Amino acid sequence: MSDILEKGISLRGVTKTYGSTVALAQLDLDLCPGEVLGVAGPNGAGKSTLVRMIAGEERPTLGELTFDGRPWSPSVEWQAVAVVHQEPQLFPNLTVAENVMVGREGTGSRRPRLGSADAAVMEALGIGHLKNKLLEDCSLATQQRTEIARAVARDSKVFLFDEPNSALTAEESDELFREIRKLAETGRIVVLVTHRLEDLVAHCNRVAVVRDGRVRTILEGDALTEEGLARQLVVDSTMTDAADSVAERKRDPDAPPVFTARGWTLPGVFAGIDLDGPPNEIIALMGVEGSGARELLRSLAGLDRCSGRLTIGSLSGMEAVDRYTAYVPATRQFSLYSNYSVGENLLVRLGRPEIAGMAFALKKRQMKTLAESAVQRFMVKTETTTQPIRSLSGGNQQKVAIAQALNCSPKLLLLEEPTRGVDIHSKSEIYRLLQTYVEEGNTVLMFCTEVLEIYEAADRVHVVSEGRLSPALSIADYDHVEQLATDITRLEGEQRSGAVAG
């Protein structure tokens, strides 16, 4: 195998379907040796499928993928592509050197010995002195360097980095990107997939913007800016009518807040957060992974122990959290019980008085009535409440996950990426559920990474960056989602600059 790919990788008309779901649609893209190609796009745009396609983990339903001018063959080129994951896929019980040599153990009883070429690669990546250290005792930055070293040592020609620095410090991130640039300078192909617009602008030669399974545009040169990327990620997007109903929702400016957080602090993540949640409002927190936004929402659900004061309704602290909040994580599997029926999942958060009598005997007739009522109230598409939850579509499963949380009548609903991976119709119905809920005097706080979702569903948004909370942006002040995307990008930059100055 030659040291570099002379012709690179080409995708032409690549389509990938899973049943009726179209993940990639007539996608065209060239990956050139010696460059860092960025890939940006909203959740569900097809980025993950594209990465798996390049890595040889998926085959196109239609279209052509060529590798250095010849048809792609995973059985031939399996060592040529390395995926460097957000969380390294390594063996913590082995040493750094042993991880580098994984896959070359041979069949003998003796362990392989570190060769001079391997040692040179490790030295070049700054981990040579750690060769005998157990990986579990190393930092995440060292683990990622080890994954890179293993790929380089096996003569990989293509490196796919998937959100590689979300858990790294600023200094560790700088070191990682220096290594990424070195890989490109040796003629290798490097692909960087990330939500961090500043990283795409600072470290990529070109950035492909993927939406709806297609490469919509490629930005490079003077056109490659954070503002330009932000606009491209939302332009021509299909929007629901949720934004109009946000403007029509009535609010009492003198009503006491549903919740207040004062001096809310999680050491090393965020500090001194002051946040109010008025009734009848959907509030969004936006930030990339590692910004503190997701952790802030989870902390209000009681998942992290914070200092400061939290008040919800008339209660404070964990008593308020237990009584008045409901939390729905981003991953449906963490909310739903796959071996339960639709009805059982809808009722799973209800307390004993509603579904059980003496000696904890279940009130089956009452449970059936409650489940059928919930199916109608929350617009769940199902033939019967007794069919398995896993038989529903992704959008209807997500409605059940949110419905089971609303069923216990919280004052504060905490959501992570509430419509990730659902179709447009289900997304619209979920937004209507949330609007109905807040119109009853409650509050929704949701963590989002997509500007379009914020524009469609929220009343206001706070940007979180470097553990700092920005002033709120009122969605009603924006006539176009592109304007909102530009201001969110500006706030993120100001937050980063403030953290550096501080």
TrEMBL record:
SUPFAM superfamilies assigned to the protein according to its UniProt record, in alphabetical order: P-loop containing nucleoside triphosphate hydrolases
Protein family membership: Belongs to the ABC transporter superfamily.
Domain called ABC transporter: residue spans: 9-237, 250-491
Gene3D superfamilies the record matches: P-loop containing nucleotide triphosphate hydrolases
SMART domains, per database record: AAA
One example GO MF annotation: ATP binding
Name assigned to this protein: Ribose transport system ATP-binding protein
InterPro entries with a match to the protein in the record: AAA+_ATPase, ABC_carbohydrate_import_ATPase, ABC_transporter-like_ATP-bd, ABC_transporter-like_CS, P-loop_NTPase
CDD domains linked to this entry: ABC_Carb_Monos_I (cd03216)
Keyword annotations: ATP-binding, Nucleotide-binding, Repeat, Sugar transport, Transport
